[in-house]
Structure formats: structure tokens, C-alpha cells
Amino acid sequence: MKVLLVTVGSQGDVQPFVALASRLRVAGHEPVLAAPALYQGLAAGDVPFVPLDLDMTEVGRAVAGRHGIRHLFAFAKAMGRRAGKMLPGMTAGVTAGGPADVVVHHPVLPVGQHLAEMLGVPAVVAAPSPVLVPTRELPSPAWSCTIRLPALLNRPSYPAARYLTGAWCRRDVDGWRRDTLGLGRRPGRHDPLGDPSVTVLHSFSRHVVPRPADWPATAHVTGYWFTRSEPAWAPPRRLAGFLGAGGPPVYLGFGSMPVDSPAALAEAITMAAKRTGVRFIVHCLNPELRRRLAGDNKRILLVSQVPHDWLFPRTAAVVHHGGAGTTGAAVAAGRPQVIWPFGIDQHFWAARMTGLGVAVPAGPVRTLTGDRLARAVDQATSDLRVSDLAQDLASRVRAEDGTGQAVAHLERLARGASVAVRA
């Protein structure tokens, strides 16, 4: 079975696809992974990689300083407006290796269904959050950054979220369909779930978000799609020395989220380290933030890239932004969490982790101060109940085989599903 995997977004959006591609390869299948060129280094060496011309640093700059609903709209707009530049190269790259038997794609920029339609094969949506498939049980997490929605709007919130994901690239996509893919217009072409028979694989655990009872049979919760650090991977000498110089430190990192005020964040981290006596490992790519934190080598270590599955189990707590990938890694590590969300579904994951008792209450990132960070870190590292619940959840999550379940669904689909219909 040849599987075309198409994903865009942040590193947390790409890593699950890398994990699935590796598992498909182990199972004897032929995956091809198409993702932003920035993340080519994440791909396993034996998985063919198609670099997409989508600069995620430009998207990051577009959402800088925006929070909540403004962050959501700015992100969707920035992604959509850059899609036109990406589409021609993607077509050439993904078709070079011959036709696929199934296309698996991320919904944040819904273009995979058009490739599947052109190839005449099934399209599968791979969702890291329950944002697309309607349910009465909860609103779409895409809107978790807004005010609390009344229950009667739960189901309508999902088609609204699906519309938003591609709202700023419809003209480019229609031109691409016509001129490159040879496809005409048809109703529902821009909706990744426009065909009710489309399979949706949710790459999170049922122990974290139980499968809603009113979901259709086409929607599945597989368990997390985790990558594993290479067995030969060893920490840099500075990181190994820092870990060995005292008790477990606290990890703090906001992924690819742009920092509004590096000076204020540096002051908050420094104050929290002094007040709590806890050491911090800070994932930091911002040059100004690195400069401001560089002087406190005994209490703060700056890192740029360390595998989460290796580092998180060696920490006392994980402070992060609430991205689906980082949240899943913290869950699997069994570490207490402190989540300061920026936007999109990050507020959903923050509320979910707090509700499960594995994270201490924090707040939107714009409310982060040194005092609040210190109090949250102190609670996360001293509350035994939070630690016990985190370890219990981790044991149940790690017992699942998310990529194995996903591969089994794809195999069944390739054997027996009806193919996409060309317009």
C-alpha cells in the first residue's frame, strides 16, 4: 500500500505524521511524507520526503501579538494566503513517485482531499484535536479561545470551524483544481468532511478525550502517534551536566508560538526560578529572550532542540503553550503540567488537562507574570495528587498503540473502501 501523507503547521503537527510514516514503513507499506521544508530533519531517513514551500516563520510573525479569537483568525488567514505559493510544487513532488492508494492529510489547510480526488483514492483526515466531527457533547475546540458557547451551538460550531480552515485560499485552490489537477467545481469541495463517508483518525488517547457517543462510525480515536528518539541519541554535555547537578528541573517552552515581550518573559522566568528554588530548562529560539536569560547558568539552561520523549520524563513539570503535540508528550511522560495557551485549540487542551487533574490552573499567556508562574510551578512540583494522577494517566496512554491502530484502519480502507469520485 502506498500512502501519501500531507501535513502543514508547526512541529507538533508534523511529528505525528513522521511517526505514522515510520510505522507504515515497518509494516511493509510505502509512505511518502509531504510537509514544510523546515521540518525535513524530523523525517526518518528511510521515509521519502517532499518539501513544501510554506514558511512557518512567516505564519508565526503574522500571529505575533494576537491572542484568543484574533490569534485563530490571524493563523487561518496567514496559512490560507500562503497556500497558493505552495500548491504547484506540492503537486509535482507528490505525484513524482506514482499514484497513491490513500491520502492522509492534516485539516489545518485542507488540500489533501483534492489530491485524493485527482488520484481517485480515499482521503483520510488526520486530526490531532476533535475539531471537525460534530458532536452535541462539546463545542469544536477551535473556538475554545472565545467565550463559552451554549450547548445548543455545540454541533453548529464544527462546520463553522471547517469553513474557517480554508477560507483564505479557496480561489487559489479552485485555480489549482482547474489548471493542475484537471478537476471541476463541485459542492463541498473545500470541506474535508464534505463526503460523509470520509474516515477521520484522531491521533489522541480515549483516556484524554473519550470518543463522543454520537460520532459516526467513520470517526476513530486511535491513541497518540508518538515518535521515539533515536536509540543512539545522547544529550549534549551541557544538558547532561545540568540534569546531573541537582533535582529534576522544570521544562518551559512555547513551541513555535511567537513571544510578545521577550523582556517580560525573561523577567518572569528569572523571578520564578528565584522564588521557587527550581531550576528551569527553557526551550528558546528567540534571540532577545536567549540574551536576557543567558546570564543565569546555574538556574536556567537554554536549549533549542531536545526530543520531548527523552527530556520530559527527566523533568519535575512541563510548562507549555498547550499545543496538541506537546500536551500529548507531557501526558505520556507522566509529568504535571502548567499550560499558558495562546490561541486556537490550546485553550481546549489547557482546560482538558486541568479537568483531568494532571495540570494546575494557569491562564492565557497574556496573564503570565513572574508571581503567577512561581505559584503555578510551586503547586505543580509539590502537589502529590497532581503527580499521581499524571503518572496514572501516562500508564494508560502508553499502553495504547496509536500508530498501529491508524495503520490497521488505513489497511482496511485500502482493501475495501470506495474511492473518491472525480467531478
Can you give keywords for this protein?
423 residues; alpha/beta; Rossmann fold; seven-stranded parallel sheet; 15 helices; 13 strands; 42% helix; globular
The appropriate CATH architecture of the largest domain is 3-Layer(aba) Sandwich
Strand content: 5-15%
How many E strands? 13
What is the tally of helical segments?
15
In terms of structural class, how would the helical and strand content be classed? alpha/beta
Architecture overview:
The protein is an alpha/beta fold and 423 residues long. The chain has two domains: 2-224 and 400-416, Rossmann fold (3-Layer(aba) Sandwich), CATH 3.40.50.2000; 237-398, Glycogen Phosphorylase B (Rossmann fold, 3-Layer(aba) Sandwich). The protein is 42% helix and 12% strand. It has 15 helices and 13 strands. The protein has helices at 11-26, 56-63, 68-95, 112-119, 157-165, 170-181, 237-244, 262-276, 287-293, 308-311, 324-333, 346-356, 370-382, 384-398, 402-416, and strands at 2-6, 30-36, 49-52, 102-105, 123-127, 199-202, 219-221, 250-252, 280-283, 300-303, 317-320, 337-339, 359-360. Strands 3-2-1-4-5-6-7 form a seven-stranded parallel beta sheet, with helices on both faces. A six-stranded parallel beta sheet has the order 10-9-8-11-12-13, sandwiched between helices. Helix 12 links the parallel strand 12 (337-339) and strand 13 (359-360). Helix 2 (56-63) runs antiparallel to helix 3, helix 3 packs parallel to helix 6 (170-181) and helix 8 (262-276) packs across helix 13 (370-382). The longest helix is centred in the N-terminal third of the chain and has 28 residues, at 68-95. The protein is globular, with a radius of gyration of 21 Å. It starts with a strand and ends in a 7-residue tail after the last helix. Mean pLDDT is 89; it is low at 418-423.
